[in-house]
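User: Here's a chain of 69 residues. Predict its fold as tokens.
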Amino acid sequence: MTTIATCSNLAEAELLKSLLGDSGITAFLPEENTASSAPHLLFASGLRVQVEDEDAAEARQVLAAAGAP
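Assistant: Prediction complete.
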């Protein structure tokens, strides 16, 4: 797995996941449950958006084209 973005909140991470999904790329949010139940625990590290290694380059292009951070 490759981390392609780190978000400060769940809404932002879900938006990126959706953008990637619309392009046929499956994204994962490993800290999704923590963000839902204890968001204060993510302030230091953030919420990672990850994709399979072979999808990383295309995922970065999709997010860049969408103007995502």
